[in-house]
Write a structure and sequence with these properties.
By secondary structure, the protein is of the alpha+beta class. The protein has ten helices and nine strands. The longest helix is centred in the N-terminal third of the chain and has 19 residues. The chain is elongated. The N and C termini lie close together (about 10 Å).
Length: about 290
Amino acid sequence: MLERLNQAMEHIEDHLDQRIEVADLARIAVTSEYHLRRLFSALAGMPLSEYIRRRRLTVAGADVLAGNPTLLEIAVRYGYTSGEAFARAFRAMHDVGPGEARRSGASLRCQPRLSFRLTVEGSSSMRYRIVEKDRFRVVGRKIRVPLVHNGVNPAIADFIRGIGKETLDRVASLSDQEPSGIVGVSDNLDPSRAEGTELDYYHGVVTGAATPEDLDALTVPAGTWAVFESSGPFPQALQHLWRDVFTQWFPSNPYRSRPGPEILRTRLSQNGTQADAELWIPVERTTA
């Protein structure tokens, strides 16, 4: 998998001055577009689209400092529709406009080329199981919130505090299958997974029961799920679990992620500092 991913990185380098299609990169990596975006984000710590943008502006910066060709020609070469659009993007990355950089020979930022290598760790095993589930519903309360990569998501925390105990008890009574009890469900995420992009968050239960009129519901088709277990400090252990799933488990197993909601079942200690968790990720077997 890593060898194919590196071949996709080479394709990016060879086509920085051309249109780069994620579908082409996915074919090279022999995976789906959805899984490629998620795997890259987990490995690189940034969205794939952001990496391509930074690489283009890095190479464009060298052209700007070289003094030839014109700034407009450079803008067009790297896919910008106008000199103004190029100047805004250039300044956002380099903290200086292209004209000023050319005149003064300013210092510019560099996004290095990425390549991926296997680091043998294996000091701790991951506990997981594969589950086939029929069609089900997530029933509870829903909110649209920004994605937060590190620490507690304040929008989600405020939302949960605002749900009354009577409502939570009524929702909990609808739970009739795995994962049992109240769960947090993330759905409809931006493909980039960039910090600050929005997602639908459900605080509810997994059920086959009918949905009360005053509650929100998400219907989930039948499919395969990988279920991972974790125990440790809250919320760091949960966020590290998601990272480890994509950086360690997927490259080592014949599965890839597929579109669908992610389900997190968390049980906090009395003081709220430790958590036992199950993370449910929708997956499908790879064919190569």
